[in-house]
Amino acid sequence: MKSLHFYTTLALGALCLVLSITSIVLGRSNNSLQLQQQQQQAEINKGNTSIQIGQNLLRDMAELPLKNDKVKQVLTRRGLTVSAAPTSTPTPTPSR
Containing H/E element for 9? Predict the structure, then answer.
């Protein structure tokens, strides 16, 4: 009976060791994946910032001829007509 307890304890100890090593390896792999995901999210955020800057720049460029007569004259000479369009705000659609 003593050898049965010994081998059972030895097998359970080995199992605990294998599970501990597996847990450490998977934890490190998970950290690597989290770092990669954070880097991708940072790139996405940079893109969103660029889009916002581009939209603001285009809006300012569209408003410039309305504020500056010289720019308006240059555009008119190039065949572009400039007029103030009413600003419309998008209405949010109700979620269902």
Answer: helix 2-67
Domain boundaries, the chain: 2-77
* Upper half-sphere CA count for residue 7 (Cβ side, 13 Å): 4
Q: Which tops the pLDDT comparison, 72 or 94?
A: 72
| HSE-up (13 A, CA, CB side) for residue 71 | 11
- CA–chain centroid gap for 18, Å, is 37
Q: Above 70 in pLDDT, residue 86? A: no
* CA distance linking residue 94 with residue 67, whole number of Å: 37
Question: Which pair of tokens denotes residue 38?
Answer: 């954070």
Instruction: Using a cut of 0.70, tell me whether the model's pTM lies above it.
Output: no
